[in-house]
Here is the input.
Amino acid sequence: MAGSRRLGMPAGLQMAPGHRATTPGLLAGLVALACVVTVALVYATLEVPRWLVRVARDWVDIPDYHPAIEPEAIVAFLDSSLIRPIGYACLAVVLALVVAGLLTRRSRLASAGAVLLFLPTVGACAGYMFFLAGLGVLRALWLPAWSGWMALGDIAYLPYIAIVWPFSLTGVDARGGVALGSIALGLFILVSSTTAWFLARFEGRPVADVWLYRVSRHPQYLGWLVWSWGFMLLSAQQPIPMAGENPGAALPWLVGSLAIVAVAWAEEARMLREHGPEYAAYRERTAFLVPLPQWLRRAAGAPVRFVLRKDAPETGRDALIAFLATLGLAVLASLPFLLADWPPGGWWAWPQWGLTPL
Here is the structure.
């Protein structure tokens, strides 16, 4: 993104007057500050789930059921407790946050909803030994789509397939490396883009177009997407002992990520209204998230142009419509994974390495 709304940063522009030179010492200080901000953001993302678990334990007594050994007990527990209605209600509220944030032009509200949609991934990454135990209780948010329906987000694994499969042909297991590498790359992008924003603000630039902002209008959102994608891969790679199945967390990640993209669309519409030609020129010369060839950029934007009959969303309502259309297309693209029940046994064992659950 051109500026993080979660951090209270304007989307791409800041209007501090004047222009000040940057010294090596100042640059080092800005990098340190960016590291602190990034660490705080990541820590909050991982610590909030733990806090929610502690609160949930005060309200609901959650037994430790193994999903492979006691599936009937899990169903009976969900039917006889408040977990299922709580999960449905929480999902509805979180989605309502995203919708309300887009329609009312309050991007922070929509961003909060997008981050909350990501929380079940933390619960999934904590392990699958017991359903809803510990951080696993966060999966209650996605009970409406539990198990097989999670495959409706499996289109998110396409880059993972493209990277891991060639290595598997040579007998190299690159699964963990891809996940951890994505997390590290995402953190690097977050730190670099936050430093660039601080630098542009200090120098009084009317447009934040230094460093990563020269190639991406939303580098902080890009960093979040790359980091969370790696986290999603880690959650999918957790095996369940005794022949259990891990449905992964692709659907929560997909919905949350597209919500982040919708927030970026809404922010750009606001920036165009407020800054007109200046921001329009910046948008024309800089990629939305990552630099792409012109033909690929046109192809990626085709669904939005088809639905809105314009090149990009111009209002919060446009951003919401584009979000729903893109999500629907992604779900349709994921249907083959669900219908073919592929990969067999889930993503934790793909490609097969001759490994079996303990």
